[in-house]
TrEMBL record:
It comes from the Bacteria. The lineage of its organism: Bacteria, Pseudomonadati, Pseudomonadota, Betaproteobacteria, Burkholderiales. Gene3D superfamilies: Ribonuclease H-like superfamily/Ribonuclease H, Winged helix-like DNA-binding domain superfamily/Winged helix DNA-binding domain. Residues 286-448 form the Integrase catalytic domain. InterPro entries: HTH-like_dom (IPR025948), InsJ-like_HTH (IPR055247), Integrase_cat-core (IPR001584), RNaseH-like_sf (IPR012337), RNaseH_sf (IPR036397), Transpos_IS3 (IPR048020), Transposase_IS3/IS150/IS904 (IPR050900), Trp_repressor/repl_initiator (IPR010921). Signal peptide: none annotated. This is IS3 family transposase. It holds the Pfam family rve_2. Residues 110-130 are annotated as: Disordered.
Length: 450
């Protein structure tokens, strides 16, 4: 088996993590095994430089049993467990499993190296001590497994337990102390004795942030979830509370509060970059006449575990939503149906420019064919630059802030009805200062009369 020095391993791992080269490229260039490279990357991510250094470690029976139990509970692969516990030979775990299945905990005890000693002439003298030692080890193992089982039941699941803080673990252990030895409980929870006693002492003291938490919750509810930790910090300081914004962020996380305004938007980009159409709009969001410049995009809504996607077209002349369509999945029909509705508003002499982002829908050959059939010029934003389509992004922000976040929806059908009503209100009733205090439809009708 070829041996590699630490510098060679670090070089390959850094190439992969920086994104300059992938698994296939590194394997082809350096002639190493795929599994070996993956193990180096995982070890480096978990243990840093020490995870790549050559080590000769001694594994006792307790450590081997811990690894096997973790694999059985979590369903881990031997490779994952080897990276997690910094075990250099993945095959060792399989060997431990076979030994444990054959002889239990005693079989995991490392054997002394060298030639075996000759058996004594009277083996009966050693049978009793060996049997007693084995029985003692099995009883210790049984006591630990009982304590561990009680601890895990208290947390309901091991995966959930690993996500708990040290303070929550200490609180669970405090409740189990009357029934189990503290040493076994600490071992099951993975806590040191000093950490346990620190959190037990902390639990006995009162919460010094109780009054601040009450004010934070009051401000959050007063503004209907629109304020994040920065604005709540500013409001607290205006009220005379000198508190750091990081403290407010931590307290809001403890209370389960976060801003509901403008969550991460649906990103539809998949595929080639800048190969379909240039950015002809170039952020010129003003139009001299109707149906001269259009913009479009797709946004996503969540209701009771279900999704709804909205695809509208806006006329930059007056900001009017001239056509839109919804679907429960981001399929091409979402865009094609919207286009058919928009094209029905065009006159024979009108050939607008239609701008979009680089979403996969807008890169489809069928989409470009529909535009070509109606003499519509295609324009696309640069990748990852939402400002190139700021007009449509602004509409999505207004739609969600004024309608979606302020209402509760029981079903997708109820949301679809609400979107239809809001878009009608947005076009016909909602005034805009940029349109001289008129709604988009009023502004368009007034221009036609001049």
């Amino acid at each position: 088996m070829t041996r590699y020095d630490v510098r060679f391993k670090v070089n390959l791992v850094e190439q992969y993590l920086s994104g300059s080269n992938g698994y296939r490229g590194l394997i082809s260039a350096y002639g190493i095994e795929h599994s070996q490279l993956r193990r180096w990357v995982a070890s480096y991510q978990l243990h840093g430089l020490s995870g790549l250094e050559k080590k000769h470690r001694f594994y006792n029976a307790e450590f081997k049993l811990k690894v096997l139990q973790h694999i059985a509970r979590e369903g881990l692969s031997d490779r994952h467990a080897a990276a997690l516990y910094d075990i250099r030979s993945t095959g060792s775990i399989g060997k431990w499993r076979r030994e444990y299945d054959k002889g239990g905990l005693i079989a995991l005890t490392p054997r002394r190296k060298g030639r075996p000693m000759k058996p004594p002439t009277s083996p009966s003298k050693l049978e009793a001590p060996d049997e007693a030692r084995m029985q003692k080890a099995l009883l210790e193992e049984l006591a630990y497994l009982r304590a561990e089982n009680a601890y895990l039941k208290k947390l309901k699941a091991l995966s959930e337990a690993e996500e708990r803080s040290a303070g929550e673990k200490a609180q669970v252990l405090q409740g189990l102390r009357p029934d189990y030895p503290l040493g076994l409980l600490l071992r099951a929870a993975g806590l040191s004795r000093s950490t346990f006693y620190y959190h037990v002492k902390a639990m006995s003291t009162q919460d010094k942030y109780a009054a601040i938490k009450s004010k934070i919750r009051m401000l959050y509810e007063r503004h209907q979830g629109r304020y994040g930790y920065r604005r709540i910090t500013a409001a607290l300081r205006q009220a005379g509370e000198m508190i750091n914004h990081k403290s407010v962020q931590r307290l809001m996380q403890q209370l389960g509060l976060q801003s509901l305004v403008r969550p991460k938007k649906y990103r539809s980009y998949r595929g080639a970059v800048g190969r379909i159409a240039p950015n002809l709009l170039e952020r010129q969001f003003q139009a001299e006449r109707p149906n001269q410049k259009w913009v479009t995009d797709v946004t996503e809504f969540h209701v009771n575990g279900q999704k709804l996607y909205l695809s509208p077209v806006m006329d930059l002349y007056n900001g009017e939503i001239i056509a839109w369509h919804t679907e429960r999945r981001p399929v091409f029909r979402l865009v094609s149906s919207m286009l058919q509705k928009a094209f029905s508003r065009l006159k024979l002499s009108e050939k607008p420019l239609l701008h979009s982002d680089q979403g996969w829908q807008y890169q489809q050959a069928m989409y470009r064919k529909l535009l070509h059939e109606h003499a519509v010029v295609q324009s696309m934003s640069r990748k990852g630059n939402c400002l190139d389509n700021a007009a449509m992004e602004s509409f999505f922000g207004t739609l969600k802030s004024e309608f979606f976040y302020l209402n509760h929806f029981e079903s997708i059908e109820q949301l679809q009805t609400g979107i239809r009503q809001y878009i009608h209100y947005y076009n016909h009733e909602r005034i805009r200062t940029k349109l001289k205090g008129l709604s988009p439809v009023q502004y368009r009708n007034q221009a036609l009369l001049i």
